[in-house]
Each structure stands twice: as structure tokens, then as C-alpha cells.
Amino acid sequence: MSTRRLRSKHLLDIESLTKEEIELILDTAVPFKDLFTKSVKKVSFLRGKTIVNIFYEPSTRTRTSFEIAEKRLSADVVNITVSESSVKKGESLLDTIRTLQAMKADIMVMRHSCPGACHLLASRLNASFINAGDGPHAHPTQALLDIFTIREKLGRVKGINVALIGDITFSRVARSNIWGLKKLGANVRVIGPATLIPKDIEKMGVKVYHNLEKGLEGIDVINILRIQRERQQQMLFPTIREYNRLFGIDETTLRRTDVLVMHPGPMNRGIEISDYIADSPQAVICQQVTNGVAVRMAVLYLIAGEGDLNEIND
Hints:
Layout: H1 19-37, E1 50-55, H2 61-72, E2 76-81, H3 93-102, E3 107-112, H4 117-124, E4 128-134, H5 140-154, E5 161-165, H6 172-183, E6 187-191, E7 207-209, H7 212-215, E8 221-224, H8 240-247, E9 260-262, H9 275-278, H10 285-304
Helix pairs in contact: 1-5, 1-10, 2-10, 5-6, 5-10
């Protein structure tokens, strides 16, 4: 690689990353995965760094994954529970984060319901910010771990055919995946009811299908997205049963066993994915979770780490 660091001290979205920066993160994640899946569990790259995880929305996988990644890098980790913080007393987002920065936090990992929340803070404060999901806008580390998993399993990203299925309109995962996959040369399509696909999505260079059978033709990877009912103001399809009938992935709708099946979680079994498919050998859902730790270690290292990655193999 021509550079060993990212251009920015923040990771706010995939759109602002170059192809080379995406590849740098993916390449850096490889030795980190070898590190924590083998005998060596911790390195000292972030010793002395303070990282604050502040999640304004519920999270299990992302928050835990970041915390494990931070501790594996020997950082000092602080988790803020918003329901028990001064936010409940009326404190603004900016004042809350300013307070944490005044305590000399080096990196803030934040999830927020408002699109652009991390961008706003990064433009006004000195700490580094990692966007752990901002409303329906972006989820950069999820996209990176998804792409890492595809590359690990198929050996490449360029030229493969990837389908994102389900709730595209309210999914931050979908948008970030599209940006990343397109930059690395994949062919991307989205499949779902018209009410759950943005009207201008084709401007991102993707093909749109409203018929599941046609959309799955010639596909190499499917990434199944759950219905974001917590973000919808109204039901945008008749019933859950109807959605499952038309767009649910099961052994009858996915007859090929050579298609890689992914899901960012949490899964709604029996709605967007059946038990049979979720537990099949072609599903790499648990591998995505494992890869998430490696990718987040790589992101943290590249943003603030010190030391030589060759030390891992010493």
C-alpha cells in the first residue's frame, strides 16, 4: 500500500473513503483476525488511549464488537449508557460530547438516530469519531466487515454479483454496502417492494428488482436485511406474512447452494429468513460477527494506533 494511514482521523461513512483506503482497512484486518482467533489475544497498540462508546440507540453486536476490539488493542474503554446519563436531564448532544472530550477522550464511537450526528460533532470537536450507525444514513464498519467476509470467502470483490434484499429505504447497512461494493468493482442490485426502495437508488449505480425470483438470477451473494419497523411511521406493505411470502428467503426461493448468504443481524427468523437458510452451511452470519471484531480493530488502529503490525508475528 502507498499509505499506512487513512486521510482522516474519523470514520464517518464509506462514501468519503477511497478504494485504496477501503482496501487498506481490509488488508489490515487480516493480521488482526489471525491475532484474536489464535493464541495471542491482546496487543498494546492503543495502550494509553481512552475510547468512549456512546450509543443513543440499542445495539448488541456493534457495541460489543467495538468494546472487544478496543480491549484487544489495550485501550482504556468507557461505555456510556444514555438512559442513565445527563441526556435524560435535557443536556444537548453537543454538550454531552464536549464534556467527554474535556475528560481527554481520544476516540468517540457513537450511534445516534439522527443522520449526520457524527459528521456534526467531528466538524466541531477535536476527538476522533467513528460512526457506529446514524439513523438510516450510514454504518461504515458494518459495510467493511460485510465486504471483508465476501473477499475472505470468494477471494475477490470485483466482478461479483451482490443482492441486498429487503428494507433498503430505512437501512444504513444497505447504503454503506452499496458505496463500498461499487468502489471495489462489484455489481450490486437491490430487491424489495417498491415502498421500501428509494426512488433515486439507481443513481448509486445499482439495479432494482421488485420480483425476488428475477432478482436472484445469476447472483453470487445475498445480504438479507430485516424490516426496520422501528424507523417506519406506517406499515409499507400489507402484512408481515405477505412480505415473507414475496420476499422471504427460504429453501424454496433460494434453491442454489453456491450462493453466499449474509445478514447483518438481528435476524427476524420466519420473516426475512427461514431457519433452514439461517442455519445452512452457505450462511456466513456468525463469521460476519467474528470478522466485525477484526475490522473494528483495524479501523481503530489506523485512526489512532501506534506501532508496527509486524510485531504481531514476532
